[in-house]
Amino acid sequence: MFVMMTGALLLAGCNATTKPQRKAANIEIQEAVGFTITEEIHIAEEVRLRYYEALNYLLDGQLEQGIVILEKVAAAAPLVTAPRIDLGMAYHRQGDLDAAERNLLQALDLNADHPVAHNELGIVYRKAGRFAAAKRHYEAAIAVFPGYHHARRNLAILCDLYLGDYDCALDQYEAYLATVPADEEASMWVTDLRNRVGK
């Protein structure tokens, strides 16, 4: 899932000669539904259209084509986090963890509290074997939005399978299930974990 599917981005079209200006991102939390992130950045209409074109390629599984266009969009709109996060996800799916990390860190340079960037960076670091860094980023995502069930699930799995921190794992699985009670697989993991720790 790419950023435009999980959050909101306001890209207001303007004259191509207008220099981009960045205002602070707005993170609006809706506990029952999730969160919406808006960035009010004025960019050229052509850049906005290219962004959506790139997303269509990514959603169709055509990663290489999407990445080529997204790189151009990110260069044309350097103050917008969404292209950088989407590049991070696309590079991750291609198996290029270094490029994924680089783009996600650039997104966090623009918005240090972006929960999606933190969660995705946690995934990249887990795959790279950098478990302490992965944990920090999952926790940072949850600190911004405690109901962010993807980050909770990822943190639970990290604590359970990679860190052997079963108390952390159980806490995170239970918090995840409070948000996503229909996840039968996670319910089985909790039962198994409780048996292992004797709770």
Q: Mind telling me the CATH class of the largest domain?
A: Mainly Alpha
Distance between the termini: 35 Å
Low-confidence stretches: 4-23
Give the helix level as a range of percent: 55-70%
> What is the N-to-C order of secondary-structure elements (H for helix, E for strand)?
HEEEEHHHHHHHHH
**How many strands?**
4
Largest beta sheet: what is the strand line-up?
Answer: 1-4
Percent of residues in beta strands?
5-15%
Cα gyration radius (Å): 18 Å
For the record, what is the CATH homologous superfamily label of the largest domain? Tetratricopeptide repeat domain
Number of separate domains: 2
Summed up, the helix count is 10
Overview of this structure, please?
- The chain folds into two domains: 1-105, Tetratricopeptide repeat domain (Serine Threonine Protein Phosphatase 5, Tetratricopeptide repeat); 112-199, Tetratricopeptide repeat domain (Serine Threonine Protein Phosphatase 5, Tetratricopeptide repeat, Alpha Horseshoe).
- A hairpin with a 3-residue loop joins strand 2 (26-30) and strand 3.
- It is elongated, with a radius of gyration of 18 Å.
- It has helices at residues 3-6, 45-59, 63-76, 81-94, 97-110, 115-127, 131-144, 149-163, 166-179, 184-197, and strands at 10-14, 26-30, 34-38, 40-44.
- It has 199 residues and is mainly alpha-helical.
- Helix 4 (81-94) packs parallel to helix 6.
- The chain is 66% helix and 10% strand.
